[in-house]
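This protein record is not my work; I was only asked to verify it. Take the sequence as given and treat only the tokens as open to question. I have pasted the whole thing underneath without changing anything:
***
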Amino acid sequence: MKEQDQLRRFIFEDLGVRGEWVKLNESWRQSIAHQQASPFIMEQLGQALAAVTMLSAIVKFKGSMILQAQGTGVIRTLVAQSSDERNIRGLVRCNEDVDSASFEQMYGQGQLILTIESENSSPYQGVVPLAGRNLGEALETYFSQSEQLNTRVWLVADQHQAAGLLLQELPSRKGDKEDWARIEMLAQTVTDRELLELDCEPLLYRLFNQEKVRVLDSESVEFRCACSRNKIENTLRSLGREELEDILQTRGDIEVNCEFCGQNYSFDRIDVEGLFADIAVTNATDTRH
């Protein structure tokens, strides 16, 4: 049976190089179920989701990693998120919908932003220009500038699946340029079709059959949205009672749709009163004390 919705990590036993392979199937199809864009634009989202899934396995954290591309071209913003448990979601918003464009046309003068929101530490954010011929090359630039680590990334997606391959030198064993150059040269022969069609171990054998590669256990990847009514309520409270009253006067109720999963949250006047009732009770209690 084909590997589906799986992440595999691997290590070159005698070299200072590690790698990751990912294949997104059902998780990818669920991720785009509520997105509206051409298949060509959706491929960018698929590549971003494959990328952020692999990146989330490089760094140890408890929380979520967010890859965001913002630009002045066809794509206004692209967001891909993976938790430390490999739960993914994503969205893309365009200034126009197209069926073909160069990477520069898609993003214009853009930025690649990588954010780690961890329960155990303060948020981390790295920002680099969106440079290169594709998203993989933009990520390579990120690691070169932010981490000073040789990294190669291959990403591909179609309407049914997304896949990725990542190679990176180990921070503890930097400097063996000959080994890195050999592994990089072998990996450069990989094709999009092989990434989409081959499972992890057959692909690694095809590329590195003369090397000693140890493949670690697979990790499952699934689509899961982090939205909830409680989070929407907190967002509405932050807008303030006056602004919510204006919306109620105009529309009668407040409808909020999650951009990631399409879930609808509805709030009528009684719901809105309830949002601020808890605050009133808390303030009253504080006053008595």
Observations:
- DSSP finds ten helices and 14 strands in the chain.
- The chain has a mean pLDDT of 89.
